[in-house]
């Protein structure tokens, strides 16, 4: 059995699809399955069991001998949520429970960290373990992810293989349910479809032009390829960046979306909301050298190729991966 927590969500359901493509069908889906808007993410996929996240610890106690690998992708990911107690429970505490169980039962685990741990990028974007204690995230979500990374690194008992992946700006199919937290490509598509136009945040930093803010946008299919590689690799434990290593502008992203939709460009700008303006990241770019150093050699999908696949094969026809 392969366990995937967060299996009804964006990245988790994509990983299930990727595992199915490779012939892995004995998959245990773990999530809060009460949200009907996420059900389509796992419809049509092959799996052996669904386990509610609240009873997963008991399930694992009873079934760990049949488990081969754990992907812990479930988390509260709302960067606009400021109730620290929610993150302490669902991100930090729940992850610690899974880690300790994997140690006890001898299970390998890959878990989701986040590029939100890098804050304003004042320490750069290297996944060197020595830098992690110095990082200053900008919100409780980022704090919770960094708190777990720091905790994991100092544990005297660790799973025989583990990897934490710092997800950068992930986009792709199965994010219909994410509302405000969905990717800019998802919002661009819907705005262009509704009005024929797209409005981006104006730059409030003299070093960047309007729309020239840059992010490391990574296609969810690439991320799933990396996780599949790590499941087979099972050595070189540690924390790894999960981006492309190449920052692109929001203008690049928006132009690619217009092109994929075959709509003439009409791009305007609005002020960045005041509540996020002081904590707005103008540049992120993953240093991918560590992942490359352990043997991952596959190329990452270009922004233009990823947007075209996402828009033409998923958003326009309304399909799920």
Overview of the structural elements:
Substrate binds at residues 169, 180, 187, 201-204, 215, 280. With 321 residues, the protein is α/β, with parallel strands linked by helices. The protein has a domain at 2-171 and 217-245 and 285-300: NAD(P)-binding Rossmann-like Domain (Rossmann fold, 3-Layer(aba) Sandwich), CATH 3.40.50.720. The protein has 10 helices and 13 strands. The strands form 4 sheets. The chain has a 7-stranded parallel sheet with strand order 3-2-1-4-5-6-11, with helices on both faces. Strands 7-10 form a two-stranded parallel ribbon. The protein has a two-stranded parallel ribbon with strand order 8-13. α1 links the parallel β1 (2-5) and β2. The two termini are 21 Å apart. The model has no long low-confidence stretch (mean pLDDT 94).
Name its key features:
321 residues; alpha/beta; Rossmann fold; seven-stranded parallel beta sheet; 10 helices; 13 strands; 36% helix; globular; ADP-L-glycero-D-manno-heptose-6-epimerase; isomerase; NADP
Question: How are the secondary structure elements laid out?
Answer:
Elements: E1 2-5, H1 10-21, E2 27-31, E3 49-52, H2 56-63, E4 69-72, H3 84-105, E5 109-114, H4 140-153, E6 162-167, E7 169-171, H5 184-195, E8 198-201, E9 214-215, E10 217-219, H6 220-233, E11 238-242, E12 248-249, H7 250-261, E13 267-270, H8 274-277, H9 289-293, H10 303-315
Parallel strand pairs: 1-2, 1-4, 2-3, 4-5, 5-6, 6-11, 7-10, 8-13
Antiparallel strand pairs: 9-12
């Amino acid at each position: 059995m392969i366990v995937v927590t967060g299996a009804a969500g964006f990245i988790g359901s994509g990983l299930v699809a990727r595992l199915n493509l490779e012939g892995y069908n004995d998959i245990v889906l773990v999530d809060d399955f009460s949200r009907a808007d996420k059900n389509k993410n796992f419809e049509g996929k092959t799996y052996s069991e669904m386990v509610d996240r609240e009873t997963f610890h008991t399930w694992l106690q009873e079934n760990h001998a049949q488990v081969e690998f754990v992907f812990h992708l479930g988390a509260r990911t709302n960067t606009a949520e400021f109730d620290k107690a929610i993150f302490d429970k669902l991100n930090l505490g729940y992850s610690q429970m899974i880690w300790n169980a994997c140690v006890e039962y001898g299970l390998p685990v890959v878990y989701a960290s986040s590029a939100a741990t890098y804050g304003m990028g004042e320490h750069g974007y290297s996944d060197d373990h020595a830098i992690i204690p110095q990082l200053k995230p900008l919100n409780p979500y980022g704090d919770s992810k960094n708190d777990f990374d720091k905790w994991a690194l100092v544990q005297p008992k660790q799973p025989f293989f583990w990897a934490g992946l710092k997800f950068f700006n992930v986009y792709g199919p199965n994010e219909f349910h994410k509302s405000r937290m969905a990717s800019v490509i998802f919002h661009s598509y819907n705005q262009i479809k509704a009005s024929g136009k797209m409005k981006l945040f104006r730059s409030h930093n003299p070093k960047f032009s309007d729309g020239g803010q840059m992010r490391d946008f990574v296609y969810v299919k690439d991320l799933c390829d990396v996780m599949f590689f790590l499941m087979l690799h099972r050595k070189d434990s540690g924390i790894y960046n999960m981006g492309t290593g190449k920052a692109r502008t929001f203008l690049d992203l928006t132009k690619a979306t217009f092109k994929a939709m075959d709509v003439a460009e009409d791009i305007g700008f609005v002020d960045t909301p005041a509540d996020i303006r002081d904590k707005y990241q103008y540049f992120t770019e993953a240093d991918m050298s560590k992942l490359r150093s352990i043997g991952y050699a596959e190329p990452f999908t270009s922004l233009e190729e990823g947007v075209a696949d996402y828009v033409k094969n998923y958003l326009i026809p309304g399909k799920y991966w």
